[in-house]
Amino acid sequence: MIAARPTRPANRARTRPGRVVLHAFLIAMVALWLFPLLWAVYTALRPISDTVTHGYYSIASTLDLSNFTTVWTAAQMPQYYWNTLVIVVPGVILTLLISSMVAFALTQFSWRFNLIVLMLFTAGNLLPPQVIIIPLYWLYLNIPVPIEWLSDNGLLYDQYIGIILIHVVFQTGFATFVLSNYMRTISREITESALVDGAHVLRIWWSVILPLCRPALAAMGTLLFTFMYNDFFWALILMKTGDKRPITSALNNLQGAFFTNYNLVAAGALLAAIPPILVYIALQKHFVRGLTLGATKG
Amino acid sequence: MGDAPFYRRSPSELSELFGLDLSRRDVLRIGGYASLAAFLAACANGGGGGTSSGPGTVSVGSNQSDTSATGGPRQGMADVTAAFQKATGNKVKMNTVDHGTFQDQISSYLQGTPEDSFTWFSGHRMRFFADQGLATKVDDVWDKVKGNFTGAFAEAVKGNDGHIYGIPVDYYPWAVFYRKSVWAQHGYKIPTNWDDFKALAAQMKKDGLVPIAMADKDGWPAQGTFDILNLRLNGYEFHVDLLNGKQKWTDARVTNVFKKWAEITPYYNDAPAGMKWQDGAALLVKKQAGMTVIGLFISQEFPASDVDDIDFFPFPDMGTKYDAEKALDAPIDVMMLSKKSPTLNKDMAAAKSYLEFWAKGSTQLTMWKSAPGFIPAASDTDTSSFPALTKKAVQIVQSAQRITQFFDRDTRPDYAGPNGMQQFLLTFLSNPNANPTALQGTMQQFWDSLPPEK
Amino acid sequence: MAEPTTTPAAPASVDARAGAKAAVRRRRRYSLLTRHDKLILSLMVGIPLGLDLLLIWLPAVASVGLSFTNWSGIGPITSDDIVGFKNYQNLFTSYIFFRPALAHNLIWLAFLTIISTPFGMFLAVLLDREMRGTRIYQSIFFLPVVLALVVVGFIWELQYAPTEGFINNALGLTKTGHVIDWLGNPRINLLAALIASSWRHVGYIMVLYLAGLKSVDPSLREAAAIDGANQRQTFFRVVFPVMGPINVIIVVVTIIESLRAFDIAYIINRGKNGLELLSTLITNNSISEASLVGFGSAIAVVLLVISLVPIVLYLSRVMRNMAT
Q: Residue A59 domain-assigned?
């Protein structure tokens, strides 16, 4: 085969008009894509007095952050942010720890039931939550949790630990699948030589394998953060205390309380949307890799 | 106590039982003074509200999540909590849940680890959970406070087993609401019969208003119109029997309801299925609509400055003998005690004290101040601060011979819900001129397919 | 569970202690793992597996059991409650909301399959080249994916509201007084929900496909370019066939997303009047005031069975890939 000559510059020169059309199309698409979000931002920046007089489809006479400050206090946003944090941060960490353990055990060693276990995990994550919710609710009312600091009513129901647990179990399947695909590319020799050096498996997992998986872990971490943060269903059913519910449920409350004040609700929705957006922007590269680690290495 | 079941006794019937020829207002006044005296006596005897022998805690599950220009129910609950804690020394742990979510989750809520006390609705909805053993009887509390409530309320809180399961907190009538200023501007007169009502709507349309606002995205607002039409055309007995499965949805009388309804649907706004009730209220607030069939709670959608402009009139007479019943929906909200609360045994004294506190007019008035759309049920409420609107609302309920609780409180919840009556009425509204017999057939088939209620 | 074993590689650098250990291990069973290690490994897999079985699969199986009862969710399940296949009979023959819900799920699937997913793939193909701004384009298309569906629902409510929403105003319909009822008209609200949902779905697919494209061996493309193929020929004749595994994943994700569709429909109007879906029917029957747990479970089982088809397909493909 002829030695590779960079072919791309030639392409670029040849299709310049094509490129312009492409960019034009993409820019148009992007504008369309961003519009609904930008409209919400615009609505949120308008004081209610402005929209009551002129309607929502109008040029704003003033723009300010009053809705954001109002909704911050009126809708108890700090409280709900905290609730979400309490659920999501341990959830992500636990999921990463557990799924990396499972992936490690399944990929670095030969088991007779590797694939079946993997399938069970992955399939679990693909089920619609409505399919399991009622029996799960009953389990949550009947599994005793005698540990005081984990549960103040002795149950999983209406407890942060309950929500964290179902998140972890539900997402472990997907995370295990993705991480095991990644770990399969790690040569078993590394594990073997570590074993030969006298290390225990836990130590190998922690000190040898996990550092090698950093990109995958970062990717999964950002994804899990998004999935858990955005969940709406589990906390709706498995919690009863309004003040403990995470921020997605708070938005529901907000709609009920301030219904015709779209401006306030828009401000609340945007405030709620900020953390995942920030996480995404910060760890953008990993997002793409995280979603596809499972896909492409198969 | 008599032949007719409890929920069929009207206030006038009950006062007749005593052979008295009193006007309703007299009854109320006498009852109020008597109960006040009895209450004070009870306080002196029982000591501090009855049962609390030291500070306890009561947990409360509340669906009063709305805030409004006047503070709103959420604010009202907070004020009552403060007053209760001050008056009795007991503590309150409040769990406020979004109004809609609370109702949707009520079944799993009550079976799980509910709070000691919770806000709920009377009617079939209350009796349903009482029958399931998810509510605690409060006969002892009721014995102390029953003098403070009229017979209608007494019936509304009775379970199927004759025991009392709740304390009436507030109620509100459904009627036809409008803005006085808009009507004055156009010179409209209150219609008393169906033809006048239709003529008025036609005139409003000519004047560029949306004659009747109908906002049914939530599915339940339209049930208010169904109820009142059915009550006026076919009577209270038929209505109650229909909602209990003793009459058929395929009955020709129900067909008549839909046919009559179709006579006013041309006067509805566009897109009734896409607007929530607050959107419909906004049409009135913005003076774009002439009138709407809704409950008194619409007042919380008005800015404080405009609340005095709200007025209402009873749904017009349909020209049947049932017009005389002056029946209307006047749902009653109640305070109940759960059964499965893990802290109820410990908190029983404080919880009952909480319920007793709610039975006082002064407490209910505190709530009313923040949520004026809900009228205190207690007879000893100080009505001097009531604006004309509220007094009129009290009057229209008192003059009603028959009161219903509202469709989704009077019938089984699996029939009244989103995949049920809410849908059937939305289907009707999307094509009101279609022959309703097909829809009625579907309604009956759906009713028949539901499992028997236990 | 079989004991984990490893085939020992030739120890490169072995210190005395490790050597002795290795010798001991080799003497036992040609395994490098101590009994202690095996226990730890078993726990590492066993505990999560146990939790998974307890909190996911046990409830799934229990749902099947409950579907044969008439249980209201309150109190114990008595023998009176057991009704055999009556719930299924009711569901398939007389429950008027089942067929619409099934139809809506199928429409959801059709829309995603014919419009949303291909569009996502198309964007991925467009963006899979060296050019300025591709990262920014990708980020923007993917942005809706990181938003909670509650937020997405609300953002689109601002567009769809009958008199205050952007679309009706922009089309000038609010002035004529005949607005389009995007969310209330049962003939079009499913489409409205689908658009809102696709706003998210397209970005998700785009990213999946993009990563797949990036993993295609560049030498294949170069060979095609050298042979004189243009962009389109390169894609369809060279790249697309190699994307087999990715294509399967895209198909499965699409199917599963259409079966799991719930949040947007529920948020808009609790899944009624044109937005009935199997998932909302389950919720409105079992986890609502209605308390028809048995019946709701029957619907859940139907959804479970339908979902297992693509899940099993996907996993068998994955197994095949892993085995090779």
A: no
CB contacts, 8 Å: C210 with chain A = 288, 292
Residue C5 lies in a domain: yes
Q: Tokens in use for C322?
A: 């892993």
pLDDT-derived band at C98, boundaries 50, 70, 90: very high
Residue A222's domain is classified under what CATH number?
A: 1.10.3720.10
Whether residue C146 and residue A113 make contact (CB cut-off 8 A), yes or no, is no
Q: What is the DSSP string of B157-203?
A: TB-TTS-B-EEEEEE--EEEEEEHHHHHHHT-----BHHHHHHHHHH
The pLDDT tens digits of the residues spanning C243-295 come to 777 787 788 889 988 988 898 999 899 999 999 999 999 999 988 888 888 99
Domains and CATH numbers, chain B: 6-170+333-380 (3.40.190.10), 174-329+404-449 (3.40.190.10)
Instruction: Give the chains touching C; criterion: ≥3 Cβ pairs < 8 Å.
Output: A, B
Cβ contact A98:C48 at 8 Å: yes
**B418/C contact by beta carbon, under 8 A:** yes
The interface residues of chain C toward chain A in range 51-80, judged by CB-CB distance below 8 A, are: 51-60, 62-63, 66, 73
Partners of residue B294 on adjacent β-strands:
B175
- Within 10 A of C288 (CB to CB), how many other CB atoms are there? 23
Range of the domain at A135: 82-241
Beta bridge pairs of residue B175:
B294
The answer to whether A40 contacts C154, with C-beta atoms less than 8 Å apart, is yes
Instruction: Please indicate, yes or no, if residue C55 is contained in any of the structural domains.
Output: no
Largest Cα span, chain C: 91
| Mutation choice for C interface testing from A30, A45, A67, A127 by most C CBs within 10 A | A127
Taking an 8 Å cut-off on Cβ atoms, the answer to whether A257 and B114 are in contact is no
Exposed/middle/buried for B187, CB within 10 Å: 0-12, 13-18, 19+?
A: exposed
Considering the domain architecture, whether residues C17 and C129 belong to the same structural domain is answered as no
Instruction: Quote the minimal CA–CA distance from C41 to chain B in Å.
Output: 37
Give domain status of residue A261, yes or no. Answer: no
Q: Which sign, positive or negative, has the C-alpha torsion B77, B304, B295, A241?
A: negative
In-domain check, residue C296: no
Range of the domain at C7: 1-33
Residue C225 to residue C229: CA distance in whole angstroms: 5
Q: How many domains does chain A have?
A: 1
Q: Which chains touch B (3 or more CB pairs under 8 A)?
A: A, C
Domain co-membership, C9 together with C146: no
Domain membership flag for residue A61: no
Query: What is the tally of structural domains in chain C?
Result: 2
Q: Residue C179 is which amino acid?
A: V
Sequence length of chain A is: 298
Could you tell me the two tokens for A285? 């590269």
Is position C137 within any domain? yes
Flag if A109 and C4 touch (Cβ within 8 Å): yes
Shortest alpha-carbon distance between residue C82 and chain A (Å): 17
> What's CA C231's distance to the chain center, in Å?
31
**What is the least distance, in Å, from the CA of B110 to any CA of chain A?**
10
Q: Distance of CA C227 to CAs A175, C230, C236, Å?
A: 41, 9, 15
Q: Rounded to two decimals, what is the model's pTM?
A: 0.85
Which residues, in sequence order, are CB contacts of A258 under 8 Å at separation 6+?
Answer: A71, A74, A75, A264, A265, B67
pLDDT in tens, B350-377: 999 999 999 999 999 999 999 888 999 9
* C28 and C101 both lie in a single domain: no
ipTM, interface predicted TM-score of the complex: 0.83
Radius of gyration from C-alpha coordinates of chain C: 27
Is B279 in the A-facing interface, judged by CB distances under 8 Å?
yes
pLDDT band, residue C18 (cuts 50/70/90): low
What amino acid is encoded at C25 in this protein? Answer: R
Q: For B453, which DSSP code? A: P
Q: What share of chain A is helix, strand, coil (3-state, %, to 5)?
A: 75, 0, 25
